[in-house]
Amino acid sequence: MIGLPPGATAVGTVTVRDGQASFTHRGTGDLHTRYEIGSVTKTLTVLLLCDLAVAGLVTLDDPVNRHLPPPARLPGPHGPEVTLRHLAAHTSGLPRVPRDLYLRALPTLLSAPYARYPGRLLLRAAGRCRIRHAPGSRTGYSTFGIGLLGEALSRAAGTGWADLIAAHITVPLGLTDTGCEQRPERDATGHSTRGRIRPPFRIPGLAPAGALRSTVTDLGRYLAAWLDPDSSPLAAAVRLATTAGIGWERDGDLRWHSGATPGFTALAGFCSPRRTAFAALTDATPGRDSIVTPAFAMLEATADADLRRG
User: Fold this and answer.
1) CB atoms inside a 10 Å sphere around CB 199
2) What is the pTM of this model?
3) In angstroms, how far is the first alpha carbon of the chain from the final one?
4) By its UniProt entry, which Pfam families does this protein fall under (predicted)?
5) Which of 54, 196, 247, 274 is spaced 20 to 30 A from 253 at the CA atom?
6) Alpha helices in the chain (DSSP H)
């Protein structure tokens, strides 16, 4: 079992093997306590892209400029070539975050770095940004890119990103406790590594990259859908994402993504050939002794144990 990291009051995990989930929980709350999952949100936004592609509303290779208003369209020479696939795969050439975010983040950098950055600034930044290399030529992790992907999908579907996530991802998969809205009676309180209470995370302009809250129970269901697409209502979308190699970090057969906010840390991952998955959530921001390293080790160990068992 993963121990409590510095500053945390709780840690929960879920292990999935052959469709069966098992849980551990230590500290405050329970298996249905909601945690901020940070950048694990990105995997749901990419799955949303694939589900909208299956539905015929977009294609992976649509230019992103097709779905943005004129002031927000990426400029040349490479901007018109950036596709939704490039955004999802972090190969767009966009920087990690919009350049004008830094100045706005400074007053609340440790507690609320994204709170003062609304969607209108994201669109303005897109129209003024510089694509750093030819799209598809190299990988560069970009929260900016996933935020812009969510905006493009919202405009293509004529519905806000949060509503799209509910309609296409969380409701079909039965993720009843996963969403952006706050539920004070169910939401854990975030902490710094020294145990100081952090306010709820706000990321209005880049919500598709990090706004979701979830539980270990819901993450178990979510990972099960990636392990066994045939049993999922999102089978075609999962297969498309898997074939395209988008949505997750890769390490051999392992697919994983970590997430962090000023008060929480998360890691979720799976190994399809071994039909195993693992996720961990805690109510403290990452520090030198965060849960990411032991959680990834648990993911590897879960897959290795299944290999030996087989």
Assistant:
1) 13
2) 0.96
3) 23
4) Beta-lactamase
5) 54
6) 41-54, 84-89, 101-105, 119-128, 143-157, 161-165, 171-173, 216-227, 235-244, 292-309
